[in-house]
Design goal:
The structure is a single chain. The chain is an alpha+beta fold. It has one domain: Nuclear Transport Factor 2, Chain: A, CATH 3.10.450.50. It is 23% helix and 39% strand. The chain has a six-stranded mixed sheet with strand order 2-1-6-5-4-3, covered by helices on one side. A hairpin with a 7-residue loop joins strand 4 and strand 5. The protein is globular.
Length: 147
């Protein structure tokens, strides 16, 4: 495992959170062009960019084009297989939201468990599977209200 590989995987984990917080839902979905997004407790699986993008249609975007959230990530652990063609990562997350007219509050906390792959040992890493395990839920009505 090289530090460059670990850094690339960490960058993907962070990119997901930053893109979502920025309201760039097309780019969030693009992270799953060759991957799947699993809802751990519900068992829902979304495959590829288009299915993942449709899932994010439920996110409420405000006048500034964002969901008014900040994802706080912690306890990130990355493990790259010896063949350097696959890897896993897991981390905790807390989503803070400051919706208009509401106080800053945590709306969701849980774990991301990820698998990554690449086509060549020197190729770029991509999400193969992200499984989200929500563990603590607050008022999500100002975050995931659209359908």
């Amino acid at each position: 495992m090289s530090s460059a590989d670990e850094g690339a995987i960490r960058a993907l984990v962070v990119a997901y959170a930053e893109l979502l917080d920025a309201g760039d839902l097309d780019s969030v979905a693009g992270l799953f062009e060759h991957g799947e997004f699993h809802s751990g407790h519900q068992g829902t699986v979304r495959r590829g960019r288009d299915e993942v993008r449709r899932m994010y249609d439920a996110v409420v975007l405000y006048d500034d084009g964002t969901p008014r959230t900040k994802h706080v990530l912690g306890n990130l652990v990355v493990d790259i297989d010896r063949d350097c063609a696959s890897a896993t990562a897991s981390c905790t997350f807390t989503v803070m939201q400051a919706a208009p007219g509401a106080a800053l509050q945590p709306v969701l906390a849980g774990r991301y468990v990820d698998r990554f792959a690449r086509d060549r040992s020197d190729g770029p890493w991509h999400f193969a599977v992200r499984t989200v395990y929500p563990e603590l839920m607050g008022d999500l009505s100002t975050h995931m209200g659209r359908r």
